[in-house]
Amino acid sequence: MLNRFFIGGIIFSCLLLGGCKKGIPKDIIKPAKMEQLLYDYHMAKAMADELSYEEKYKQPLYINYVLEKHHTTQAEFDSSMVWYTRHTDELSKIYENINKRYKKEQETINHLIAIRDNKPKETQPGDSINVWYGNPLNMLTNYITSNKLKFDIPADTNFKQHDELVWKMRYTFLSNKHIPDTAVMAMYMRYENDSLIQVVKKVVRPRVDSLVLKSDSAYQMKELKGFIYYPGNDEKKVLLIDNVTLMRYHHPQTDSISVSKSDSIKDDNDLKQLEISVNNRHRSAAAKDIQKKDEIQLQQR
Q1: 261 phi and psi, to 5 degrees?
Q2: What mean pLDDT is reported for the chain?
Q3: Tens digits of per-residue pLDDT, 59-86?
Q4: What is the separation of C-alpha 170 from the centre of its chain, rounded to a whole number of angstroms?
Q5: Ordered alpha helix ranges (H), the chain
Q6: Which of 172, 170, 167 is nearest to 152 (CA)?
Q7: Fewer CB near the terminus (10 Å): N or C of the chain?
Q8: Cα dihedral 93/109/43/38 (nearest 10)
Q9: Residue 230: which of 183, 268, 190 has the closest Cα?
Q10: Which residues contact 119 (CB under 8 A, 6 or more apart)?
Q11: Which residue has the higher pLDDT, 283 or 12?
């Protein structure tokens, strides 16, 4: 709907007549106020146009509300618009600012829709952009329904051949310090030919940590995926993950890729196998730790 807001600006621009700037008369609405008024006016007009046929009679109420909000009469608004259409430079500046505001508003709406649908919006262009679309603060437990944090970003035209992706966050383990605790983080990049590169890392203590992937394939990137897995079976153990960012850096050249030789991750089945493998290792480590403690206690006795 916001795209329709630009129509008013385009129409005015096409109909404007040149004129000499001689200052703004006292009875004409000043540019700053006119910008605010026109911003709300086109917003209300677009909303009114979306009314059903049965509610078309409400259209004038939307415009009247805007005029009352800005303490302006219809006559003052009409006479001011006549003056601005004769002074192209003033009206052009106003609509440039309005269009910027609508564009920013549209980006905000797209972001909220992405959060609502749990889907990434199209990433922004730029050399250094945070493409993380999820919550920057997350809490995981050892319980099966809340022990994973995942993301999946389809590559768009803003991803380039030599991009570097840095997934960074802070880990805080809130469980008993005497109990071994481990989290696993992984990120992988899949190309159009279905080849992939990946990196996997264990996190065993509170810290700020990150994963880095550099793309140097001749193929276009197809998708970027990642996860954090908090294995175990204790609902009371909590892992707090905050300050999550996923930075994308454009580079004209790239060094050789350092790829982890850890378990291969290709799809959800491989992910489940990795989770099982990590969980088994975790249990084995915990069992060895308990056995060691028992041996120490026996020696003390």
Answers
A1: -95, 20
A2: 75
A3: 899 999 999 999 999 999 999 999 988 8
A4: 18
A5: 5-15, 31-49, 59-69, 74-85, 88-117, 268-300
A6: 167
A7: C
A8: -20
A9: 183
A10: 133
A11: 283
